[in-house]
Design goal:
Structural class: mainly alpha
Number of domains: 1
Number of helices: 9
Helix content: 55-70%
Order of helices and strands: HHEEEHHHHHHH
Largest sheet: 3 strands, mixed
Distance between the termini: 37 Å
Amino acid sequence: MRQVMLAALALALAGCVETSAPPPVQMAPLPEAGSPVSPGTAAANFVGVVRRMEPVIEQECLARRARTNCDFRIVVDDRPGQPPNAYQTLDSAGRPIIAFTLPLIAEARNADELAFVMGHEAAHHIASHIPRQQQEATTGALILGVLTAATGGDETAIRTAQNLGGTIGARRYAKDYELEADALGTILAWDAGYDPERGAAFFARIPDPGNRFLGTHPPNAARIDTVRRTLASLQ
């Protein structure tokens, strides 16, 4: 079964194109990530990382007594036209899903990068970031909607205010959640025997979002600093 999965994944990865390199990011040097790998190596890296990371993720979820389902399912999103991406979601039964698009698996230079990204996405679920963000969005929409209604706003104004309040609420702690996930993701990758700092080298190859007001992600340098500080506490 593992050989079949490797072959199928390698074949799909062969159709992925390498993303263009962004401008260099100013930060302390990271461990060498290595060169782009072949589809076969990318597939083998992914399968190996899933095998090692999944039990560590589930064990940490249970150890933290997370008030959530700890039975993770890690999948490949093979829909055509997807960008390099990984994300965490829930199925209809509330089971946590970690999905990797084929271009991200192809873009990863080594198993450490895949492990760190996997740990990061798992951390979002373990820390209940999705329900917390949904609650903050609901609160923001309610507050701004009530304030608009109290000042005489009509139905359209109230609806607009609710949408704006929901967006502000959802993004209020978004960058903090990303850094929390980076910290816990570092622990998960380390516990599984991977090098999180080398894994974080992935950030050096993606555009830096900067420190935008109500942005969804923090600056790359802040994320790498979080990984390094967390790693130092483990060694």
